[in-house]
Amino acid sequence: MSDLLIKNGLVITMDEHGNVISNGAVLVEDGRIEAVGKNVKPKTKPEEIIDARGKIVMPGLVCAHVHIHMSLLHGSPLDLSCSSTLLRQLFEEKIGRREARMGALLSGLELVESGVTSIAGDLPCSIGGGKILEEVATLLERVGLRASLGISVTDERSDREGARGVRENERFIKKMRKKRATKVQGMLGVGDTCTVSDELLCHVREAADRCRARVSVETSRSIVKVYSSFEKFGKGNVERLGDLGVLGPDVVLTYCVHLSRNEISLMKKSGAKVAHIPISDVLEGGKVAPVVEMRAAGIPVGLGGGGYSSDMFQNVHFAYCIHKLQSVDLGMLSLYELFKMVTVEGAKLYGWDGKVGSLEKGKMADILILDPSFLPTPVLSTNVFVQVLRAGRRAVETVMVGGKFIVRDRRLLTVDGVRIKEEAKGMIENLWKKLKKS
């Protein structure tokens, strides 16, 4: 028996042909999509039928890079009083495991309530130790998210701390693989490339080969980071990664704002992928990342929020606007292309492309239902991406992950979000006071 039939919706498939189906349907069975189309006829009566008339049905969103602990800084007045990089450094020195857990839980709530079903999240090396990755994985699973999770290592403070972070990532990767029912996978992470020694980068590469795991590497976020790389190592960040043999199809480079043409060529040849963080471009990068050039070179590019925003509709909107600034061709990076980056293309970065990112038979039923009825203009197959962007997160009515309802009728079903947010406020206020004194 089929579990669920969603019918009469405007279905955005994000398949390879970019099909948008008016009065379309999606059939779900055993957590997977069984059929998508205009005239879907279940063999047996579904257990439940949702009439999505007047609504939009689309794949769950993929956040390709998020610092899950940094939700504790969202809305902080300190954002306006010091540099983002300095604030992050001060913040990560002040938080411990308890704060990291709460930050991850808050990020999980914000993400899923805004239609995100899959994330790649990291934690700082400074709060590693014990089983923090397992603790955070448990919290994200409680919320209902699909996740790739790891510690971003650096040996800027000590060689010992960097090596410990690699060991913890390896152990976590192996443990998650043994848990067949989990939606969380481990990955290796690397902090700002210019703060990581050649030895540690090679150590991470060796660990990735042993574990057959993805690697997320922060690089070329600002011109200061590029200058630092030239000063310390005599070459740009990505060029250095290429020379050390770190680059490969299992590597996701995050930020990538300041790149040379040669570095883009190196990325293409290696098969490396990119997570674009548009808000960071403006607040830290000082320019717009060459996303158009990277995608033209055939480099898969996903979209993330970094430490700034868990609302991926907001990140799409921001990216759409800032890329118009650097191109005389206003159609160069269309909304359709940006929504590919936050769905099917983003899924490629972490090996999820065969599982999620589009509504196609055989893929996991990670599905959103949006209600744009508050918009004063009609939603059509010809303007649906504009209207999705206009409606944003407030249109998110239903969120499913693997066929399980996480949000329904705008109500979070998996955890008590109201209680969690109230409990977090006292912790956050104390943390902000500590940061202000610093």
Summing up helix and strand content along with how strands pair, one would put the structural category as alpha/beta
How can the largest sheet be summarized? 9 strands, mixed
CA radius of gyration is 21 Å
Q: Number of helix segments?
A: 15
Distance from first to last alpha carbon: 60 Å
Low-confidence stretches: none
Mean pLDDT over all positions: 93
Give me the CATH superfamily of the largest domain.
Answer: Metal-dependent hydrolases
Tell me, briefly, the overall form.
Answer: globular
Output the CATH class name of the largest domain.
Answer: Alpha Beta
What is the CATH architecture term of the largest domain? Alpha-Beta Barrel
Measured as a percent range, the helix fraction is 25-40%
β-sheet strand percentage: 15-25%
- Total count of domains: 2
Description:
- This protein is α/β, with parallel strands linked by helices.
- The protein has two domains: 105 residues, Urease, subunit C, domain 1, CATH 2.30.40; 289 residues, Metal-dependent hydrolases (TIM Barrel, Alpha-Beta Barrel), CATH 3.20.20.140.
- 39% of the residues lie in helices and 22% in strands.
- The protein has 15 helices and 18 strands.
- Strands 1, 2, 3, 4, 5, 15, 16, 17 and 18 form a nine-stranded mixed sheet that branches.
- Helix 8 links the parallel strand 12 and strand 13.
- Helix 2 packs across helix 15 and helix 4 runs parallel beside helix 5.
- The chain is globular, with a radius of gyration of 21 Å.
- The mean pLDDT is 93.
